[in-house]
Amino acid sequence: MAKITLENLAHSYLPDPKSENDFALKELNHDWADGEAYALLGSSGCGKSTLLNIISGLLIPSQGRVLFDGTDVTMSPTADRNIAQVFQFPVVYDTMTVRQNLAFPLKNRGMDAAEIKRRVQRVGKMIDMEAELDHKARGLTADAKQKISLGRGMVREDVNALLFDEPLTVIDPHMKWELRTQLKQLHQDFGHTMIYVTHDQTEALTFADKVVVMYDGRVVQIGTPQDLFERPAHTFVGYFIGSPGMNLFEATIEGATARVGDTTVELGGTYVASGKTQLGVRPEFIRLSAGGTGIPAQINRVEDVGRHKIVRLTVEGHETNAVIGEGVDIPAGTDRISFAPEGINVYANDWRISAKGDAA
């Protein structure tokens, strides 16, 4: 395992970048702790795979350094970094059996035959392919081949890091859950440093100790799933994490209060903000009422999804979502919403700001 340090790292695919907008990966400084499991999460084109390929050695960055346990490996080829990487689409040797495919990286390192057999048998069971170990890979389905790729990454116990680039794309939904669980167990058993690229928040939140959210080539937040849900550092994080995502309301910040339309909202702290200012409130913290105080709202429809109801509303001309517990009644004639104070986040120019005297 290794601590991975990214120092002043940035990358542009242009030969002579002139501005920050020319960079596919904006400048980044971060330590990936030895033995932790990370997920790189974001929509397509946000820079996830670019960052992973720089860490793996498939891409040399335009600027900055990559260090493994303090050793500069920026210019080192992938083979010298002692990593295992699993790609989006399966890479297997069709003429070999499943067993031979799994054993290949261990044989290349001259490992004892008995130990190779033990590890291959263990990983074969883990990926639910014990019965196919002596079958040729050629005739297998795409998801079976991807399981082999995953297994070849997991069979090594001495790697500095395991890197996964959207490895479950071709896997059927049931097996996705099984393999995520197995990867999590592998991490707990062996403590590898793992970095897992995905655009699927469920995969990221169930797999990782820390989630790295990327947007437009920039890391906008690194945190636990709870951090990302409760305190989104950027409006994109609030929108991208959660189903439905966080509601955003254009607001004028006036110290300890905000104005949303013609309604005053108490913020529970004093804020200094300029530029584009918004309140971010997750659907779970929206309260519904009929008459009285609150922000005018109109219910469009109610969706009962079993564990809770999703109430779709129009507020200040924008679609707004509220989540209501299954046993909670929606007030008859609902025409107002308010916010639970603990669920209000304040944003200036898309970045979360803290009240005076509060920690970030």
TrEMBL record:
Keywords noted in UniProt: ATP-binding, Cell membrane, Membrane, Nucleotide-binding, Transport
InterPro entries: AAA+_ATPase, ABC_transporter-like_ATP-bd, ABC_transpr_FbpC, ABC_transpr_MalK/UgpC-like, Mo/tungstate-bd_C_term_dom, NA-bd_OB-fold, P-loop_NTPase, Transp-assoc_OB_typ2
GO CC entries: ATP-binding cassette (ABC) transporter complex, substrate-binding subunit-containing
Pfam families referenced in this protein's UniProt entry, alphabetically: ABC_tran, TOBE_2
UniProt domain ABC transporter: residue ranges: 4-241
Superkingdom of this protein's organism: Bacteria
GO MF term list: ABC-type ferric iron transporter activity; ATP binding; ATP hydrolysis activity
Family: Belongs to the ABC transporter superfamily.
Name of this chain's protein: ABC transporter-like protein
Organism listed in the record: Celeribacter baekdonensis B30
Lineage: Bacteria, Pseudomonadati, Pseudomonadota, Alphaproteobacteria, Rhodobacterales
